[in-house]
Specification:
This protein is α/β, with parallel strands linked by helices. 22% of the residues lie in helices and 31% in strands. The strands form three sheets. It has a seven-stranded mixed β-sheet with strand order 2-1-3-4-12-11-10. Strands 5-6-9 form a three-stranded mixed β-sheet. The chain has a two-stranded antiparallel ribbon with strand order 7-8. It is globular, with a radius of gyration of 15 Å. The chain binds glutamine. The site of glutamine has 12 residues, from helix 4.
Length: 196
């Protein structure tokens, strides 16, 4: 049963270089929205939003370069396109990243620290701290070799925290989560992106 949150015909792109592309499509479908694979500049035309999935930011960054997508995605954001970056996707949105830095899109005024939870606890599920942004209360967050978000600039709003650390931030129409919302049975973050 889909819960429509966007006008009929709305399409959202998922960068398809690497990562859980199909899981994001499934979430979008639950919300009555068609997912489109993005592998070139022409795929961005007419999209309401773009999802940059998790995976390895080194690989995705190289792919963005190879496909010539750095500038077109920046232009998409400047034109008001919504972007949700999850895990490696969040790293790629950051203004800078540390711990084996990779070239990023520099669309979000934060520093991403790669693999910041270390190898001991490289995957875990945690519930967001109380006091989350209104409609995200109690969200379950799946972390896989997750980054941490540091030094958010003045235009960055922290929407969710786990153990006091930011795990979901927003700057205008850019959303970045250090966890994988497509792996939990909860489409609220995808719905939030569509509504921005
Ligand atoms: N550790 C990965 C990186 O630094 C991100 C992991 C993920 O996206 N699940 O790119």
């Amino acid at each position: 049963m889909s819960q429509a949150v966007a006008a009929e015909g709305t399409r959202v792109g998922v960068l398809a270089i690497q990562g859980a592309v199909d899981k994001h499509f499934a979430m979008l479908e639950r919300l009555g929205v068609r997912g489109v694979r993005v592998l070139g500049k022409e795929d961005l035309a007419g999209l309401r939003g773009l999802i940059i999935p998790g995976g390895e930011s080194t690989t995705i960054s190289k792919g963005l370069d190879r496909l010539g997508l750095f500038e077109p995605i920046r232009a998409f954001a400047r034109a008001g396109g919504r972007i949700l970056g999850t895990c490696a996707g969040a790293i790629l949105l950051a203004r800078e990243c540390e711990n084996h830095p990779v070239p990023t899109l520099e669309l979000l005024d934060v520093r991403a620290v790669r693999n910041a939870y270390g190898t001991q606890v490289d995957s875990f599920v945690a519930q967001a701290d109380p006091g989350a942004a209104a409609n995200l209360e109690g969200m379950g967050c799946v972390f896989i070799r997750a980054p941490q978000i540091a030094d958010p600039g003045p235009e960055v709003e922290v929407l969710l925290r786990v153990d006091g650390l930011p795990v979901l931030v927003r700057q205008g129409r850019i959303l970045a989560s250090t966890f994988h919302p497509e792996l939990a049975d909860d489409p609220r973050l995808h719905a939030l992106m569509l509504g921005l």
